Known about the structure:
- By secondary structure, the protein is mainly beta.
- It contains no helices and eleven strands.
- The chain has strands spanning 5-17, 23-29, 31-34, 39-40, 44-51, 55-65, 70-81, 88-94, 98-99, 103-111, 114-125.
- The strands form three sheets. It has a five-stranded mixed β-sheet with strand order 3-11-10-6-7, with no helix packed on it. A four-stranded antiparallel β-sheet has the order 2-1-5-8, with no helix packed on it. The chain has a two-stranded antiparallel sheet with strand order 4-9.
Amino acid sequence: MKEPVCTALLFADRIIVENNGKKGIIGTFSRIFAPSFPVQTAPWGIYAAATNVVGKHQFALTLTNIESNQDILPITGELQSQNPEEVIELTFNTAGVTFPSAGKYSLSFTIDNELLSSIILYAEILK
């Protein structure tokens, strides 16, 4: 089997899944702002997509404070596909995630403990 490939990984204000399975991704971003930290955020979403996957596999999406190496949002589960050309879409709407400090956070996307992709989210003091 070829290696899985990440086709998308992003943060959004909201992710909608329609009755037909179509996804609506509203308000992508890479920075959050708060008057002070720690802060508990309003709801927001994560969209991840992968292809070149056959069979059942474990996945993880983990948001980690880069400076302290503290995981603040671990999401794990199982995905499955019989067709390697299929794009598997994962959507998660979060609520009340606590960011302990301003700084850089990394969202990593792994399948079977192998890193597919990662992106940075900046948490900043509102000026």
